[in-house]
Design brief:
The protein has about 425 residues and is mainly alpha-helical. Helix content is about 70%, strand content about 5%. It has 19 helices and 4 strands.
Amino acid sequence: MNPTDYDFRVKDAVLGAQFLFVAFGALVLMPILTGLDVNVALFTAGIGTLIFQICTRKKVVPIFLASSFAFIAPIAFSVKEWGISATMGGLVFAGLFYVALSFLVRLKGEEFLHKLLPPVVVGPVIITIGLILSPSAVGMAMGKDASYSQELSIIIAMITLISTIIVIMFGKGIFKLIPIICGVSVGYGVSLLAGIIDFSPVASASWLALPNFKTPTFELNAILYMIPVAIAPTIEHIGNIIAIGNVTKHDYLKEPGLKNTLLGDGLATSVAAFFGGPPNTTYSEVTGAVRITKSFNPAIMTWTAFTAIILAFVGKLGAFIATVPACVIGGIMLLLFGIIASVGMETLIKNQVDVNNPKNIIIISLILVFAIGGMMFDFGFASFSGIGLGALIGVILNFVLPDIKIDEKDKIL
């Protein structure tokens, strides 16, 4: 039997739980940052992974789906602007955007997707996702609205940040895959010593409890704001599918095909939003763990999904995670948002986007300014702003602006 074929075995349950441990830090950090329920995020990560496996049943991909960091800033803004229920409605349609792309790929092939979303658009969109919430990261690290002193908050945030950097730089084996968990653990330990953690919510929480599910409502402004945000994670999805293919030596872009992996990711995101959970994405952390353990059997991820669903009903788990101080999260965010922005720059550099081409420099400039500057277009029936507006401007300009070849002497930069 091919080592990447689906083979469901009970003895793989422990290995599946191990992969959840690898994904756990990023999985729960996203709902913490956006005010969503951690237990719901666990539940929807498990359900989303199972949906993805059903959609890729012709050749199941050994990968786990969970909370997408690309949506942190948009969700935070949308919750503030329209509330959680309307935000979930927007995320339902963001997932359907994936689904629509999967059908376009099915009809027109993968090249159409690359034409619609070239690196010159995707790169700056990812940069804005990383930078737009940087003030909130600084605010949390500095103890804004905290009951303890600003000095203590900054010290704990810096210890958390430095610990995470050390693990990223020098960690070996499994520790290389869980720098966020390591950094948060160190910061949490220092917070315990400082006496700033309140365990009373954990004591009062039940062991077994239903996650705090939310139902979506559908408001046009929230929907139109959220749909373009899905552009960046779409490219992230393609990269992760290629990465897991390199690990297992199988071309998943051909079998089951990008049309089916995008469909699975989109449906997983929409279904997650119907429960009040964060949008899903394929996790590169788990791909790294698959490389180390050489656990290519996709059924192991089924056990990972089952473990996430079971843990979602442990009430004390969510209550305990909620005790992580804001300064610890702020310390992680200082690095995390910068890394996301760096991925956007890497996209431009890796694809050799020519910034001396007037078309490219115009697209990049306007995406950055419109998104980060907070520009808003109000059309009466709906408004566009932030990352969504920047992404939309980029897509439109890419189609309408002509490519102009310039001589060496006429270069802009």
